[in-house]
Amino acid sequence: MADKNKLLWALIMAGGNGTRLWPLSTPKKPKQFLDLSESNLFQKNKTKISKENLLEQTIERVKGIIPNERILIAGSSNHRKLIQKSSRGIPKSNLIFEPESRNTATTICLASHLIKEIDSNAIMTVLPSDHYIGNLSLFRRILNKGTQYAKEDKIITLGIEPTSPEVGFGYIEKGNKIFTSKTINTHEIKSFKEKPVLKQAQSFLKSKRFLWNGGYFILKVSKGLEELKRFEPKIYAYTKEASFFLKKRNISKFNTVFKQCKKISFDHAIMEKTKDLIVISSNLEWNDLGSWASFDKIFKNDSNKNTWLVDKNTNIISENSQDLVIGTNKKFVIASDVKDLIIIEHGDGLLICRKSKANKIGIFANKMEKSFSKKIDKK
Asked: Hey, which end of the chain has fewer CB within 10 Å, N or C?
């Protein structure tokens, strides 16, 4: 592999419980560690399913332009073994195991301190570990383009061209155009918008001024630390101290200091306050796999927009039924006169909900987990 950009590092964020994909994704094994090709739910429709889990796919995605020694992976200490298993080839010293979740601002600040000790001129790209990306070459071109702007002390985020009025995403409002080509566009950022209600999301889509916020960043580590010190000085100080203990492998003191950081996203801590922002957008084939409703975007549907996540030998009869996502290991399935439903059967779990309400699944999955934990504790 030719190391074309010796300044570029990657931070892959492998935290999160992926509860909106319950019952397939659970706190013990969240979606970033799932090998979807192993599940019978995907045997009938495997055209875009890799045999690697989502974290492994993310690592491979950046390996083409960033060597292993410049890839950091951060996740929960509860998932230590899963992270280690998925990160073969990445130096052990590059794995960060967080004792508790403190959201993305703390993770990015900690990684920035660690990287700056090695290379004060380094540029870091920050990536979620649980997304699907179809066009690898375009994605790498975006990273390279973003690196050019980062050298000019800009903070770059990746915006996704919206294809529907999604209420589960944050939005970025485009400002003045900076650059355009057949595949990539760059704009100043006018504003960030929280997850909207449906009517507002429809307005965003119609205006063509808004992009989905993909949660990717590219920035100089020195620039990121400068902004974090300015807007979140306590996080800056705590993570600097925590990085010292982590390098010394004093995990007990690292954990103690890390827990003192408050929970806040990098978007709220920095992106909504700083002025040096650029958004890069493209027609990247992207899906955050954030809920079961999103699976109809990457899997083949039948003529009635039904997505069948079943074994390849499953017999299906569907009559007057539409907008379904059905996942089951049963050999025979009948759907008659139903619509807007998600029904997922996996392991000991059974999910039934409106497809249009799929974003609520995580709330109930968390309630289920807490209730189950209490019952276990009483035994």
From this structure: C
Structure tokens at 331: 């050999």
Structure-block tokens of residue 77: 């200490």
Say if residue 280 is in the same domain as residue 308: no
Does residue 203 belong to any structural domain of this protein? yes
Q: What is the pLDDT of residues 320-371, one digit of tens each?
A: 999 999 999 899 999 999 999 999 998 889 999 999 888 888 888 888 877 7
- What is the residue whose two structure tokens read 């903070």? 155
Q: Which domain holds residue 278?
A: 8-287
- Structure tokens belonging to residue 287: 């899906």
State the pLDDT at residue 52: 81
> 176 with 239, same domain?
yes
pLDDT at 115: 97
CATH code of the domain in which 186 resides: 3.90.550.10
Using alpha carbons, list the distances in angstroms from residue 127 to 28, 45, 71.
22, 27, 11
Query: Tokens 């595949």 belong to which residue?
Result: 183
User: Which tokens hold the place of 233?
Assistant: 């000085």
Residues in the chain predicted with pLDDT less than 50, given as ranges, are 1-2, 40, 43-44, 46-47, 376-379
CA–CA separation, 347 vs 290, rounded Å? 20
Q: Please give the helix or strand (H or E) that residue 173 lies within, else none.
A: strand 171-180
